[in-house]
Amino acid sequence: MTMAAKHEYYYDQFVSMVECSCSAADYLHETLQDFNMEDLSARMSHMHRIEHQADTEKHEMMKKLAREFITPIEREDIIQLAQEIDEVTDSVEDVLMRIYMYRIKSIRQEALDFTTAIVQCCKALKTAMEEFHNFRRSTKIHDCIVQVNSLEELADDLYIKAVHTLYGSCHDPIEVMAWTETFERLERCCDSCEHVANLVESVIMKNS
User: Fold this and answer.
1) Dihedral sign computed on CA atoms, order 86, 91, 94, 99
2) Any residues with CB less than 8 A from the CB of 7 and at least 6 apart, and which?
3) Which of 22, 29, 36, 83 has its CA at 20 to 30 Å from residue 91's CA atom?
4) Is 177 left (phi over 0), alpha (psi -120 to 50) or beta?
5) Comparing C-alpha atoms, which of 125, 119, 117, 126 is closest to residue 156?
6) What pLDDT shows up at residue 189?
């Protein structure tokens, strides 16, 4: 394998890992749109397979990284990027786990607003990662980073409004607790996406 091909491997793996995040986000959105409490156990199993694939992609990259001396960007940045991307997929799976654990019976509109934003965040990250191998010349990465940052700000606003509405309209303390935690986990998904975007921006600054 040529040096160039070895370097492309890491960028390709980043794309594969973000594709797992996109799959998880799409599946969460689909699950909440067509919500059926009886299907949740099977839905969780499918989501866990997506998360497991993301873990496999990360572990393969770490094994290869451990054997190599020369990498396209700093070793520590590769490790941190892999971990941050993996955290996006983990955080998406965590939302579905909370909905299952708290036995949520119906989905609030605010949750769908969140999952729409999460799907958009992941798509922007995928575009950024597809361009990452060419970060010194790419004109798209910056726009993707700005988009993720904007969506994260939108998620912050969604969280505040969702919790405000919840506490004003719901009088069941258990349901209030369940949705408060679930909204927090949904907002955390967008935070995780922003962490990836900010790290990509930092790596580009260091290597430009």
Assistant:
1) negative
2) 71, 72, 133
3) 36
4) alpha
5) 117
6) 97
Whole-prediction pTM: 0.94
Phi and psi based region of residue 103 (left: phi greater than 0; alpha: psi -120 to 50; beta: remaining):
left
The answer to whether residues 15 and 126 touch, using CB atoms and an 8 Å cutoff, is yes
CB 37 within 8 A of CB 105: yes
Please name the residue ranges forming H helices in the chain.
3-33, 40-67, 75-101, 109-132, 141-169, 173-207
147, 155, 187, 80 alpha-carbon torsion, rounded to 10°: 20
Q: What is the dihedral sign for C-alpha 22, 24, 26, 28?
A: negative
Nearest to 98 by CA among 90, 87, 110: 90
Q: What pLDDT digit, counting tens, does each position of 1-56 carry?
A: 444 456 688 999 999 999 999 999 999 999 999 999 999 999 999 999 999 999 99
For residue 105, give the DSSP letter. Answer: -
Cβ(80)–Cβ(198) below 8 Å: no
Report which residue type is found at 195. Answer: H
Do the beta carbons of residue 205 and residue 145 sit within 8 Å? Answer: no
Express as a percent the part of the chain with pLDDT over 70: 97
Q: What's the distance, CA 202 to chain centroid?
A: 18
- Pair of tokens at residue 83: 């971990």
The sign of the CA dihedral 181, 183, 189, 192 is: negative
